[in-house]
Amino acid sequence: MPAVILVGAQWGDEGKGKITDFLADQADCVVRYQGGSNAGHTVELDHDQFKLHLIPSGILHPSKTCVIGNGVAVDLGKIIEELDGLHQRGIDTSNLRISSRASVVMPYHKKLDEIEDRTKKIGTTKRGIGPTYADKISRVGFRICDLLHEEYFRQKFTLEAGNKNRLLQKFYGEPGFDVEEMLEQLLAQIAVIKDYVVDTPLLIHRDLKAGRKVLFEGAQGTLLDIDHGTYPYVTSSYPTAGGACVGAGIGPTEMDRVIGVVKAYTTRVGEGPFPTELLDETGEFLRQRGAEFGTTTGRPRRCGWLDAVILRYAARINGLTDLAITKLDVLDTCQTVKICVAYRYKGELLTEFPDTDIVLAGCVPEYIEMPGWNQDISSVTAYRDLPAATRDYIEKIEELCGVKQALVAVGPKRDQTIVTRKIF
Ligand code: GDP
Ligand code: IMO
Ligand code: MG
Question: In whole angstroms, what is the distance from residue 381 CA to residue 384 CA?
C-alpha cells in the first residue's frame, strides 16, 4: 500500500498536521498537493510545537522526502520565513523538494485578496490564495520555473504587474506596486530556494515505482473544496482526494487508500452556513477546551456538534477508505454528546448534503444524543481501553458514514494516537 491520500473531512483544522506527522514515521515521502500558506498544520512534539503552513508536516522526520507539489500556491517570502524558522530550531530541510510547476503568490495577489474580501466577505486568510489560483486558471499566473528564466520572467512580469497596477489604481483606487522593486525581490527570493526546485511529479513517480511509501497531505477540508465545498465560502483549490492526483501529478490508478481526518466535533473559520454551529456556552466550551483558534490567522473558530451528513458526503466525494478521528479527548467532560444525522429543510428531511448554501443556510440539524464518557481518555493507548461510551461514539460515526476508523487521537502529541488498522 504505498500511496495514501490524507484529506480533511470537514471545514479544515481537523488535525491533519498531527496525523501526517504520525504517519510520516512509516512513510518515505510526504507531499502537499494544494493550498498554500492559508493552511496551518500543527505538530506537537514532547516539548515543542510547530505550525507549518507550506512545508509538509513530514519535515520533522529528517530522513523523509518532503514535497511541495505543482498544485500548491507558493508565497516565496513565506516559504523562506518558514525555512528560516525551522533552521533556527535545528530542523534539517535538505530533503525538501519544491515543484518547478507550482504557482507563485505575488504581492499584488495578497493585496487583491485583502481588497476583494471587503466586499465578497468570504473571510479569507488574506494569503493571496484566490487571486493566485484565478490567475493560474486565466493563464496569466507565474510558476516557479518561469522565475528561473530571468529574461523571460522580466518581460512577462513587467507586463502583468503593469496590468495589476492598473486594476488596483483605476478600479480599486489603491496605490500600485513598484514593478522593478517587486522584480528584484522575487529574483532574490527565487535564488534562495532554487536548489530545492525539481520536477516533483517525476520524483514521486520514481518513488512509487521503487516501492517507496508516499503520503499525500491535504490542506483545508472537503467542505472548502472549490467544486464540492460550500461555494462561494470555500478556498480556491481542490482539497479533496481528486486534488491529490492533479496537484501532485500522479494518476488515480497509483492511489491505494484515502484517509479522512475527522474532528470529533465540527469547526469552521470564516463565513458561510454551518448547521450544527453552537452559539451558546457549549460552543464556547468546545472552543476553549479544544483551543479552537486559527493556526494561521488566530481567529476564533466557530464550533458545533459533529455532523454526520457532512461525513457521509466526505466519504463519498473522497472515496474514503479509513477514518482518523481526532480530538475525542475534548469531549471528555460532556454529559452527553450529539451527532447530526440529517437536516430538516422547510419541513423536508434531507439525508444528503445540499448543493447550495442557499439551502444549507436553512437546514436545521436532526440530532441523536449519546451518553458522554465523563472520563479522561488522554492517556489511553489501546482501543479496547477506551471507555465503552467513547467506543460507542466512534462506532456510531463509522456506521453513519460507512467507513471504518484506522486511527484515533486522544491528544495533540505523537504518543496520544491509537492505531487500530495499519496504514503503511
Ligand atoms: P490541521 O490544519 O488539520 O492540521 O489542524 P490544526 O493544526 O489547524 O488544528 C488542530 C489542533 O488540534 C492543533 O492545535 C493540534 O495540535 C490539535 N490536536 C490534534 N489532534 C488532537 C487531539 O486528538 N486532541 C487534542 N486535544 N488536540 C489535538
Ligand atoms: P488547514 O489546512 C480552516 C478558509 C478561510 C476562509 C476560506 C477561504 O489549516 O485546515 P482562503 O484564504 O483559502 O481563500 O480562505 O477558507 N480556510 C481554512 N479554514 N483551515 C484551513 O486550512 C483553511 N484555509 C482556508 O478561513 O473561510
Ligand atoms: Mg489548520
Answer: 9
